[in-house]
Amino acid sequence: MSQNQDLGSKQWYVVNTYSGHESKVAKNLEKRKESQNMQDYIFRIVVAETTEPGMKNGKPTGKEVVKNLYPGYVFIEMIMTDDAWFMVRNTPEVTGFVGSSGKGTKPFPIPNEEIEPVLKRMNIIDEDMFSDYKIGDNVRVISGTFEGLNGPIETVDVENKKVSLSVVFFGRPTVIEADFSEIEKLD
Known about the structure:
The structure is a single chain. The protein is an alpha+beta fold. The protein is built from 3 helices and 11 strands; from the N terminus they run E-H-E-E-E-E-H-E-H-E-E-E-E-E. It is globular and about 55 Å long. The termini are far apart. Residues 1-6 have low confidence and may be disordered.
């Protein structure tokens, strides 16, 4: 099967790496994507890192520390072709794809409901994420000022990446505004 054969739409996959080597693997994947002309099959490569204030003995150090939210994993948005799979799988320090039994079997993509919270934590918001959220859907606020509150969506503002929710706050029904990155859908 050649690169020219389109096997579907781009989806997110997870690869295992040696812990502590995630950024190095991501850089190698970016270089290999360019050198092997795979830009039409491999898109975003994400290492889920956040920056936090450094602490020592319970006190702030004044320095920031990069923390990996998922040690040993790199997230890749790609179209799964034989060539793309081979290129990623054979990148130095990649130990395999999550969701593959090995022996040449292709992995399963990550469902949207599993990758969306990871991307939101990285502040990566795609317009297509909004299509899963409609007025009346029950959501939970997962971060920010109103963390822990639940309620139905009243409005969706795609342009500003915000939603308004009807919640009970101090015993009263209240409409609040939350960034899209701060909510998740309830089942």
